[in-house]
Amino acid sequence: MDDFEKKWKRIQEQLRIQMSGDEQPRISSGRTLFGIRSEGERKMEEFARQIEAEYQARELGKEENQREL
Length: 69
Description:
Blueprint: H1 3-20, H2 30-33, H3 39-68
């Protein structure tokens, strides 16, 4: 299921919940409903990718050092 289908499914689910009145909607904003990431979320993901790349490079370096021994 691609992102569009996931977003459309979320919208349909929220509409169903609101129309039935059985539950309170769990979505607090259109940003959340449509899956739009904030600038803070984008930066956190970028930092996480950088940290992961550094970790992988460090692990690769350790493996190469062990092979040389």
